[in-house]
Specification:
The complex is a heterodimer of chains A (211) and B (486). Chain A has one domain (6-182): Alpha-Beta Barrel (Aconitase, domain 4). Chain A has eight helices and seven strands, in the order βααβαβαβαβββααα. Chain A has helices spanning 21-24, 44-47, 94-102, 114-121, 132-144, 173-181, 185-190, 193-206, and strands at residues 6-13, 79-81, 106-109, 126-129, 149-153, 158-161, 167-168. Chain A has a seven-stranded mixed β-sheet. The chains are: A alpha/beta (211), B alpha/beta (486).
Chain lengths: 211, 486
């Protein structure tokens, strides 16, 4: 997994609650057996005016000019501002894969759906929970300022607007450690092979019907 | 020892080791696998040169991409076909038991697991699918995971987790006639919102919950994910044990006795403390219909499409306006005046035999209304289909003008050929009314099986309580007698 330490990036505001994983990456693109290449179909039904299918050349499809990601000022965005319950719905990891493939590295929202939140950390994508009132200010500043950027520092656990004070955020110690060092969970778990075997032996005595 | 919730008990009995920062390595007893979220996980194993930790803990079945007609002719969409074939190949290569597409036991993974006894009380059950919460109905801890975690479970039989908080929702009193587990689920989501359960495991309790059949409990736990919770669960009682007994993967002989003894402890202690507790009165619940594009956008059948101007929260108000535009509905329209174009009865939420019985009882000798372009019934598994056919339910549906299909996820998420066309409106027994979920531009109204059946016959939504008052008697609900082997 790619490391995440600091990012100074353009911010794009997606001002609607309950953005679900079906919207992030529609189901027809889930038929792929690969992990990459989902970026051009991120938010496909909102981003394009026609119906997208896998394997299509997306470069000449009609873009929906009203959709925020299609606004010129947000083209290089790497930080997504979102609303409550972002990533709800299906557990598809294709959703963080699509966001990462598009170039998004940080999502800031008042709340996230649990499975999506977990999936982000497995893919070097940092989800930041921020109080609604503070986030409202960032939404406003993003709308008011062309090329609005934020500096996200994971080590310091701060989000800093270019002309403002740092805003602190919470992050799980273990997940922070993994992101900062680009660690793979499976390798970490396999350091505890003896513990797993010991658990299985004990459990087999207590509950043999499970084996 | 301090009092524990059901979730605490299962969590504690699955800790392999605790990290210093509150994360834990949790052992997984059952891993269910389907074709959509697993290929990249198997590929990851291959690339890292890893093998399965414990083959026998896995059970696989293709469900999302399978066609529901002319299955003997294979899958016509080449991309869907590749995904299903990839599952077959991966199961062969890694030695995982699979009920492949033409196996009579094939079906939706969350219907197949319990039906086979692969889901047992007290287990940790995971699957790369959010509706894994279904299995919590058995007093199991069951939750959906992403593909990285699928790979993690395949390689280690464990997951790195942080414990969720405890929430209990008690639904007391007897459910009124015509009100089902689906209505309880939608009413709860309407009450607490789709983020209401975030970071919590919800235990459902109270007399209305213990009064539900195991299939009703599965419907309720299935929808827990739509309330944003990590998992939903119901304590084990005699109904749980009766349901599990005699199924192919269930324990037998001495191990059965030992298991039943252990399972009697699978309930929250009397003085267990919950972080959040809610109590609802079942007699207040009315059959529910969603009007918008999130399951929390739901009203009673007796209600009207709401007015965004009555919503004080600006973010919610704007979401309501977007939903009304997408759904092509006007505020103030009576729900009973909404006319679907299609009706879908099925899914991991409502594709079990009791659901089909409830729908068939409403259909009776009626006919699908002329304005309904398609009414389809998709049984949740091959064994559900067989059972329904033995009871003659297929004849009731076919005679009324419904299509009677082969099992799979079908139009719940439209990954196969079953879908809504842009602008079409559907009365659906599935779980999500998101934009585009049942087909791009499709408009979904979530309802119970009885409500969907009634809408098919009337051509518009109707209050099932009024229909059922006129029925001779409710279709008896008895324990399904599944053929145990395919």
């Amino acid at each position: 997994m790619e490391k995440f330490e600091k990012l100074n990036g353009i911010v794009v505001p997606l001002d609607r609650p309950n953005v679900d994983t079906d919207a992030i990456i529609p189901k027809q693109f889930l038929k792929s057996v690969k992990r990459s290449g989902f970026g051009p179909n991120l938010f496909d039904e909102w981003r394009y005016l026609d119906h997208g299918e896998p394997g299509q050349d997306n470069s000449d499809r009609p873009l929906n000019p009203k959709f925020i990601l299609n606004h010129n000022r947000y083209h290089e965005a790497q930080i997504l501002l979102a609303r409550d319950n972002f990533g709800c719905g299906s557990s598809r990891e294709h959703a963080p894969w699509a966001l990462v493939d598009y170039g998004i590295k940080v999502i800031i929202a008042p709340s996230f759906a649990d499975i999506f939140f977990n999936n982000c950390f497995k893919n070097g994508l940092l989800p930041i929970v921020m109080e609604r009132t503070v986030l409202d200010g960032l939404f406003q500043q993003t709308a008011d300022t062309d090329g609005y950027r934020l500096l996200v520092d994971l080590e310091a656990q701060t989000v800093t607007p270019s002309n403002g004070e740092p805003i602190g955020f919470e992050v799980d110690t273990f997940r922070k450690h993994c992101l900062l060092n680009g660690l793979d969970d499976i390798s970490l778990t396999l350091e505890h092979v003896d513990d797993i075997r010991a658990y299985e032996q004990r459990r087999q005595q207590e509950a043999p019907w499970l084996f | 020892m301090s009092a524990k919730t059901l979730y605490d008990k299962i969590w504690d009995s699955h800790i392999v080791r605790c990290g210093e920062d509150g994360t834990a390595l949790i052992y997984i007893d059952r891993h269910l696998v389907h074709e959509v979220t697993s290929p990249q996980a198997f590929e990851g194993l291959r690339l890292a040169g890893r093998t399965l930790w414990r083959q026998g803990a896995n059970l696989a079945v293709p469900d999302h991409n399978v066609p529901t007609t002319h299955r003997d002719q294979g899958i016509s969409d080449p991309v869907s076909r590749t995904q299903v074939e990839t599952l077959d190949q991966n199961c062969d290569e890694f030695g995982i038991q699979e009920f492949s597409m033409l196996d009579p036991r094939q079906g939706i993974v969350h219907i197949v697991g319990p039906e086979q006894g692969a889901t047992l009380p007290g287990m940790t059950v995971v699957c790369g699918d959010s509706h894994t919460s279904t299995h919590g109905a058995f007093g199991a801890l069951a939750f959906g995971i992403g593909t990285s975690e699928v790979e993690h479970v395949l390689a280690t039989q464990c997951l790195i987790q942080r414990k969720s908080k405890n929430m209990r929702i008690r639904v007391e009193s007897e459910l009124p006639c015509g009100v089902t587990a689906k209505d309880i689920a939608l009413a709860i989501i309407g009450h607490i919102g789709t983020a209401g359960g975030n970071r919590h495991v919800i235990e459902f309790a109270g007399s209305a919950i213990t009064g539900l059949s195991m299939e009703g409990r599965m419907t309720l736990c299935n929808m827990t994910i739509e309330a944003g919770a990590r998992a939903g669960m119901v304590a084990v009682d005699q109904k749980t044990i009766d349901y599990v007994q005699g199924r192919p993967f269930s324990p037998t002989d001495d191990q059965w006795d030992q298991a039943v003894l252990a399972w009697t402890d699978l309930h929250s202690d009397d003085d267990a403390v919950f972080d959040v507790e809610l109590v609802l009165d079942a007699t207040d619940i009315v059959p529910q219909v969603t009007w918008g594009t999130s399951p929390e956008m739901v009203v009673p059948i007796s209600g009207k499409v709401p007015d965004p101007n009555d919503e004080p929260d600006a973010v919610k108000q704007s979401a309501m306006k977007k939903a009304l535009a997408y759904m092509d509905l006007e505020s103030g329209t009576a729900i009973v005046d909404i006319k679907p174009d299609k009706v879908f009865i099925g899914s991991c939420t409502n594709g079990r035999v009791e659901d089909l019985r409830e729908a068939a009882a409403v259909v009776g000798d009626g006919q699908v209304a002329g304005n309904i372009k398609l009414a389809m019934v998709v049984p949740g598994s091959g064994l559900v289909k067989q059972q329904a056919e033995q009871e003659g339910l297929d004849r009731i549906f076919l005679d009324a003008g419904f299509e009677w299909r082969d099992p799979g996820c079908s139009m719940c998420l439209a990954m196969n050929a079953d879908r809504l066309e842009p602008g079409e409106r559907c009365a659906s027994t599935s779980n999500r009314n998101f934009e585009g979920r049942q087909g791009q531009g499709g408009r979904t109204h979530l309802v119970s099986p009885a409500m969907a059946a009634a809408a098919a016959i009337a051509g518009h939504f109707v209050d099932i309580r009024e229909v059922q008052r006129s029925l001779p008697q409710r279709h008896g609900v008895h324990r399904p007698r599944y053929p145990l082997e395919g």
